[in-house]
Design goal:
- The chain is mainly alpha-helical.
- The chain has 2 domains: 97 residues, Helix-hairpin-Helix base-excision DNA repair enzymes (C-terminal) (Endonuclease Iii, domain 2); 102 residues, Orthogonal Bundle (Endonuclease III, domain 1).
- 61% of the residues lie in helices and 0% in strands.
- The protein contains 12 helices and no strands.
């Protein structure tokens, strides 16, 4: 069963790689700290909107010390065009203070330390580890969760369990890449509403497509 599952996963990943060979994060950043801030801003907001915010934000404030000294109300005003901006401003400010006080203004490269920071969950930690530090980890956002479970790469009802499934089904060396492939496919084809199943080159091996055809 494991060999069959791995072969199935390998076929899907090969197709996705062929479709999106240049897939990478769409968030604009120059340092691990900027990436951390951008990912914290990205919850319930598009990458395009985050980039529009950070283009100006990072011209004014670039390092943890800048954000630690910044009044939360000022940061709220800077990021108010994104969702949940009050909570995000508070968390970014508190996280910046911790980075200054405990980590010499450096973003830790440890998952365990990252998830202790205010506003940093598993997804955010794994995105930072993969894109800033080159770690081979799989971050599960809404696109990855939806597409992975539809295709049968995972079979779970929570992001954390989906991450566990994907870590088992995706071979080492491909996990961080697969994160981007699944995101691209989720945005362009396997949409939450009105997915383009008839146009999808993976429809023949898609668990979700088989289920809706049999209804």
């Amino acid at each position: 069963m494991t060999k069959r599952r791995n072969a199935y996963s390998g076929e899907i990943l090969s197709v996705l790689n062929g479709l999106y060979p240049e897939a990478k994060t769409q968030l604009k950043f120059e340092t691990p700290f900027q990436l951390l801030v951008a990912v914290m801003l990205s919850a319930q907001t598009t990458d395009r909107q985050v980039n529009a915010i950070t283009k100006t934000l990072f011209e004014k404030y670039t390092v943890p010390q800048d954000f630690a000294r910044l009044p939360v109300s000022t940061l709220e005003n800077e990021i108010k065009s994104c969702g949940l901006y009050k909570n995000k401003a508070k968390n970014i400010n508190e996280t910046s203070k911790i980075l200054v006080d405990k980590f010499d203004s450096t973003v830790p490269d440890s998952f365990e330390e990252l998830v202790k920071l205010p506003g940093v969950g598993r997804k955010t930690a794994n995105v930072v580890l993969a894109n800033a530090y080159g770690r081979d980890v799989i971050a599960v956002d809404t696109h990855v969760f939806r597409v992975a479970n539809r295709l049968g790469l995972a079979s779970s009802k929570t992001p954390e369990k989906t991450e566990e499934d994907l870590t088992r089904s995706i071979p080492p060396g491909s996990r961080s890449k697969a994160h981007h492939w699944l995101i691209y496919h989720g945005r362009q084809v396997c949409r939450a509403q009105n997915p383009k199943c008839p146009e999808c080159v993976l429809s023949d091996c898609c668990k979700y497509y088989r289920s809706i055809k049999s209804r």
